[in-house]
Design a protein that fits this description.
This protein is an alpha+beta fold. 25% of the residues lie in helices and 23% in strands. The strands form 4 sheets. Strands 12, 13, 14, 15, 16, 17, 18 and 19 form an 8-stranded antiparallel sheet that branches. The protein has a 5-stranded antiparallel sheet with strand order 5-6-10-8-9. Strands 1-2-4-3 form a 4-stranded mixed sheet. The chain starts with 6 loop residues before the first strand and ends in a 22-residue tail after the last helix.
Length: 455
């Protein structure tokens, strides 16, 4: 194939760098990496993979926990060179190419006092997070990332570029919003932006001995909080970062809530008063911050290359018995980077009709993720076994499925549980746009079987 971007094979300079992804536990060796420079390159790469019957993966930011932006022996479409962005401040929209990161988007939108609801690590690629759903600090106020998606340009399995929106290919547009990378290569997204500039945000930490009490308070408080108040609950080991955390807490296992209040600054003190009145934090770092600073707050703690093992579930309720299990495993945090987060997905995100998008858990309260993380491969077994045991203890209290971007390779049953009644509709749309399942290096939705016409 011919392309403007580089075509890298294992013997080429730059190949090893290009095949590295965010999760250092992933070590895959594709036969060819197409570093696409434009849409024409993507179309040519899709055509080549289809004609040569190559296993095909698509890589944007490379943050897939399961390493699904890479594959062994096949071909990778690498979008990381396609990072154009255009903000329309009057229309409050942003057009972003498929290789952009969340940090790229924040950089472009913040000068206009605008923001896109997205994740909590700025090096994350927009493609994966948007197609999977997109959760973060603005979810309760403005919904998921997919709820701000207006249209997308998609290269289909046949190599053709189409537009997906409410007016053009509406079935494809429905499927893209939560259905992952199953339906094609999205070369650009058009999003609605929201007025967000300076917010009141940051973590509060409490002793681990207070964890059960704080988790019960959080369970009762968060669902009835106004949409402009967001906070995710976490267990953590305080990192030895002198500029941010007092030295006497370094290496200390604690619980915490990471807050983001998007209401009027004058109301911030009153907004945080309930939690400060309930139990004074051992550390309180909440204060005014530009939104891009909030969305990159954990970049330094979680740089690319750490080893990760993920387990996740959607959660509707948090009974006392589940809290007991949470605290038990929090005391066993195996490494400094390992953690558990409960991300709220109610508020504005929960008020979108269940049938409006492929995302199936609009009635969930939280998205739980358990991650064993460490820089040293020697600890892979320790972080993996802890995460699996923790998940197995909490899974009986879950809603059944999990956020696709938090899943490892867990099989068809888990994918079906995640999409629930939407799976069959997604399967039919998959059969229409990718009948031979070219795009299968993902949380795969298999195309519906095509039945022969009656004679």
């Amino acid at each position: 194939m011919s392309a403007r971007g580089a075509l890298l094979q294992p013997q080429d300079a730059g190949y090893d760098e290009a095949r590295r992804v965010y999760n250092g536990m992933i070590d895959k060796h594709p036969a060819l990496i197409a570093r696409c420079a434009d849409v024409a390159d993507v179309m040519a790469a899709v055509d080549y993979a289809r004609q040569e019957h190559l296993l095909l993966a698509v890589c944007g930011g490379g943050h897939s926990g399961a390493g699904m932006g890479m594959c062994d022996d096949g071909m990778v479409i690498d979008l990381s060179l396609m990072r154009g962005i255009h903000v329309d401040p009057e229309a409050r929209t942003v057009l972003v190419e498929g290789g952009c990161t969340l940090g790229d988007i924040d950089h472009a939108t913040h000068p206009f006092g605008l923001a896109l609801p997205s994740g909590i690590i700025s090096t994350t690629g927009i493609g994966g997070i948007a197609l999977g759903g997109g959760m973060g600090y603005l979810s309760r106020r403005f919904g998921l990332t997919i709820d701000s998606l207006l249209e997308a340009d998609v290269v289909l399995a046949e190599g053709r570029l189409v537009k997906a929106s409410a007016e053009h290919n509406p079935d494809l547009f429905w499927a893209l919003r939560g259905g992952g990378g199953n339906f094609g290569v999205v070369t650009s997204f058009l999003f609605r932006l929201h007025p967000v500039d300076i917010v009141q945000a940051g973590p509060m930490f409490w002793e681990l001995d207070d964890a059960a009490e704080m988790m019960r308070w959080y369970r009762d408080y968060m669902p009835q909080a106004k949409d402009d108040m967001y906070g995710f609950f976490a267990f953590l080991t305080v990192p030895p970062v002198i500029d941010h955390f007092p030295e006497h807490l370094h290496g200390h296992k604690m619980c915490g809530i990471v807050w983001c209040y998007t209401g009027a600054e004058a109301g911030a003190e009153a907004a945080f008063q309930p939690v400060r009145d309930f139990k004074k934090p051992a550390l309180d770092l909440v204060g005014p911050k530009p939104m891009p600073a909030v969305q990159s707050m954990f970049d330094g703690l979680y740089p690319p290359g750490l080893h990760w093992y993920w387990k996740a579930d959607f959660v509707k309720e948090l009974p006392d018995e589940a809290i007991e299990q949470h605290v038990r495993f929090a005391r066993q945090l195996p490494t400094m980077h390992s953690t558990m987060h409960l991300y709220p997905i109610d508020g504005a995100a929960g008020r979108v009709e269940q049938s409006a998008t492929a995302w199936n858990f609009r009635d969930a309260t939280w998205s739980m993720v358990i991650v064993g993380v460490d820089p040293d491969a020697a600890n892979d077994e320790a972080i993996t076994s802890w995460a699996k045991a923790y998940w197995e203890a909490l899974h009986p209290y879950s809603a059944g499925g999990a956020y696709v971007n938090f899943m490892m390779e867990e099989g068809e049953e888990r994918v079906r549980a995640t999409y629930g009644p939407h799976y069959e509709r997604l399967s039919k749309i998959k059969a229409k746009f990718d009948p031979n399942n070219l795009f299968r290096v993902n949380q795969n939705i298999k195309p519906a079987a095509r039945h022969p016409a009656p004679e």
